[in-house]
Each structure stands twice: as C-alpha cells, then as structure tokens.
Amino acid sequence: VSTGRDVVAKIVDPEITAGEFDDEAFIRETAIVASLNHPHVIRVHDYGVQDGKPFVVMDYLRQGDLTHKLAKGLEIDELIRVMNQLSSALDYAHTKDVVHLDVKPGNILFSDQAVAVLSDFGIAEFQCGKNGAAERRTVLGTPEYMSPEQAMGREIDGRTDFYSLGVVFYQMLTGELPYRPDRGGNVALRQARDPVPQLPDQFSALQPIVDGCLAKAPEERFALGEDLRRALAEISMEGIVPK
C-alpha cells in the first residue's frame, strides 16, 4: 500500500539476543511504539515478522542524524533547539510508559525542516529474549550513553533517558564524551564511579544542565523534560560557542 511518504524498513536480527526471540513480545511492544504520535518521534507505519525476521517500517528522513551534525559543529541556538525538541519527545513517550533506552546521536534524525526526531524507540525492548529485562538492557544499550542503573541491569525509568540525553548534550557542547573507557575498556564502571565531569570554563553557565542529567542517583536528575527546558531557558547563552 502506498503511503505517499519516504519510508525505510529496519530488520531486527534476533540472533543478537541472548535468548530465544519472542515474536509476541516484539509485536506487542512495537504496537505501543507505533501508536506514538508526536512531531519529534519517528513515525512507525508497519511492523511484523516475516520469514522469522522481525521488521519495522518507519519514516525516512533525508537530512541524516546528529552524528553528521557533530562532525560539522552546531551553533548554540541549534543545540538548545535540539535539546528542547528531544526532551519534549521523551516527556511524551514517558507518559505512554515507553522508555527509549538508547538515546544517542545515531538515533537522533533530522527532517528537511531541520526538526530533530528521535528514532528507534524501544529497540532494546523489541529485541527481547526470554532471559529477563535487566539482561537485555545491559546487552543492547550503547555503553557510552548508558546510565549507571541501566548498565548494571537495575530498575530503570524515564530518568534513564535523561541521563543519555545529558551525554548527548555534553557531546554537542564540547565535542567529547563525558566518560571514556578505562584501561580495561570499561566505560560503565567510570560512569558509575567517577564524578560528574566539569565543563570547560567557557561553558560553565551550563554546568547545572550537565549536573541535572548526569547525576549518579536517578532521584537527583531531571525527572521531566519540562524541568530541563525551564532550566535551559533561565541561562544566558550569550558568548557560548560549542566546539
């Protein structure tokens, strides 16, 4: 059936899961994500399992993802706009009991109108085996963007997504990740153990945003994107030039 829109099909490889792939769980969870309707959330048009392979059909956005923008650099106005749009998307999803679990530059796409759109909602939940939530979250997240509780397989909620968004914010601002792997290649341990990094002096006005996103304890983070947006609005951006 023609939709009149450019779409892309994403094939989920069930072999990457730790246990037997659960088709019913995939259909059930994807149906929830497909019901999301928000200007900053990717639109899912179809989904199912064909020849044993789960698939999701979603909007195709031609302007690439945040990874490409990071390579070119962002103006502060664009950076703040992206944060506002993504935090709005997360607020909406969380009201629908959907936690993203993998907020990172590769999952932040842009429309022809330069609108930020969060994609791959719930992919960690789509790719679920039968070995338990904690295991699949640990395996399927992206370590550099994981909250301490997600990396350790503990209980998660929407504040986990705001931690990941904080990592993206830090990266957009400084051009670097807040935590890099230790000598053993373990970044999760550093995120759980090391203090929240201090921004370079030229970005110090934005330290409260980093603190409110990257706090180790979920109860010390922004609980709502609305709170994050309010905090951003109260900070003067004059003279701040992202790297």
UniProtKB/TrEMBL annotation:
Domain Protein kinase stretches: 1-233
Keyword Cytoplasm set for record: no
PANTHER family referenced in this protein's UniProt entry, alphabetically: MITOGEN-ACTIVATED PROTEIN KINASE KINASE KINASE 20-RELATED, SERINE_THREONINE-PROTEIN KINASE YBDM-RELATED
A molecular function (GO) term: ATP binding
Gene3D superfamilies, A to Z: Transferase(Phosphotransferase) domain 1
Record SUPFAM superfamilies: Protein kinase-like (PK-like)
Keyword annotations of the record: ATP-binding, Kinase, Nucleotide-binding, Transferase
Protein name per the record: Protein kinase domain-containing protein
InterPro entries named in the record: Kinase-like_dom_sf, Prot_kinase_dom, Ser/Thr_kinase_AS
Pfam families: Pkinase (PF00069)
